[in-house]
UniProtKB/TrEMBL annotation:
This is diguanylate cyclase. Residues 445-578 form the GGDEF domain. The lineage of its organism: Bacteria, Pseudomonadati, Pseudomonadota, Alphaproteobacteria, Hyphomicrobiales. Pfam families: GGDEF. The keyword Transmembrane helix applies. It catalyses: 2 GTP = 3',3'-c-di-GMP + 2 diphosphate. Residues 321-374 form the HAMP domain. Its EC number is 2.7.7.65. InterPro entries: Diguanylate_Cyclase, GGDEF_dom, HAMP_dom, Nucleotide_cyclase, Rev_trsase/Diguanyl_cyclase. Keywords: Membrane, Transmembrane, Transmembrane helix.
Amino acid sequence: MIRKPISRITSVLIGLRDGTSLRQQIALLAASLCILSIAVAAFGAALIARGEAIRENRWDLTLVARSMAQRLDQTMFDRYREVRNVADMELLKPVWTRNPDIIRETLDQLQRSLPQYAWIGFASVDGTVVAATKGMLEGVSVAERPWFVSGLKGPAVEDVHLAKLLDHLLRTSPDEAPFRFVDVAMPVKDENGKLAGVLGAHMSWSWAEETRRDVLENNLGKEGLDLFVLARDGTVLVGEDAEGASLSREAAAYDPGNPDMVVAEVETSGLGDYPGLGWKVAVQQPVSVVSARVAALVRNIFLIGFAVACLSALLAWLASRTISQPLLGLVTALDRIGRDEKETTVPRLHGFRELSQVSASVRSLLRRLGAVEESARTARDMLAVLKDEYSRNIRSSEERNRQLGADIRSLRTLAEHDSLSGLLNRRAFQPFAEDAFATFQRHDRLFSVLMIDADHFKTVNDQFGHRAGDDVIRAIGDAIVEEIRSTDKAARFGGEEFVLLLRENDANGAWVLAERIRLRIAALTVDAGVGNISVTVSIGLAEVTADDRDVEDTIARADQALYIAKSSGRNRVCVDYPTPRSQSA
């Protein structure tokens, strides 16, 4: 026959639960709940903080972009106004078509005061450059250049572009990046109000890159920050993607859809009568920079929460003493009752409602047991009286002697046996158990204890009635008696619980008998008059050990094995071996 071990998980859980005190379990539960609550709170805080941090970060980036956009608009407005002021200057109106030298000197002075102007020139209405800074392009036709064509119609601003005519004049080295310019053009009229030509100014686009670097340097505290200026069509004009532009610190390509970047964009809107060119300023920063700050915040939340959890566990440990102390008093009182005949009840305990109810129920149970014992004592007293009567009247008649003998046997049976099952009662079983334990201590003669409990017996009573339940109890008692030896002792401890004392039997031999009893009872069909009833039993088995203080310890271990049998499925045998391990069938 193969013995199957009970579920390891069930055994481990039961062992952990039963191996820790109520105080430890309360402290562990409080700490676990606190840690779980803090973990959930930290996770929620991380999600909320990350979203808020990204929103705040995007607002900060928007302010940076807005600052850059305002500086671009302000610079272009100033240049636009300066060119317009020169074009409208009253002193120059008489000389626009007559004295190129005066015009050139005026333009040179303007360029010297503002080096951002790479070239300023005046072209007549036919597109020929009449005067220009440093004489560049004088006599050259610019009739087809966009700035000239737009300038004939009115004030105009041309977006960033390469200067084909000026590039070879301004470049100092063939390896130098091509020049890019922003053009401002104004129509010029003579003293008679007639259109005399167009005043055009080419501003080097390098000033925008310088402005960008200045803005970035003013925001050095923002790690990984990068800034771009985009044209109306989305082309990068300033930034690492711009042609000829220098790379910024830790620069990354601009991609407004990149999920790894927080991006803010602000459009330029012009200023005053400067209409603007539709530029857009974009600022981006890696999400990882924002997440790092959030991670530090969440870490601090969790550390604080863990400290709170530890403090809560400590407080729970201290508070649990108040809760568990009365319960420990009840356990101690019950243990004394099981070992000291003088102890007959437990004190009234207070501390919490359930404990008061338990102590009241235990006191009631002990009173009932006391009443039973009192009945047994009364029966013994009656037996003694009958014995005396028998002694006084022994010579009276043989018939009377036979009657007295029958009465004595009936009273002895009544005092020592359970009236329902016919097995020993607890009082009669106790001397046999104590004698077996004494023999074990003196001569190392082993014995084992079986605790047998009917499965789902309450269902039998509820469904078929208590009379049918009594029939089932009698059938179980009969099955037990038919399987045990004459040296074994069987008793009914109450309800549907039976105890067997097996002398000269270790755990392995006792297991064989227990299995035989279990299978025999499982095969029973009890005819109770209201239908056939089938019943199974769970059995706990324990072999006496040197660690047992008395036979009650052995019985308690068998009862614990019975509890495991019930918890792991019923209709099985569970063994509490001398070395900690359990088996089931």
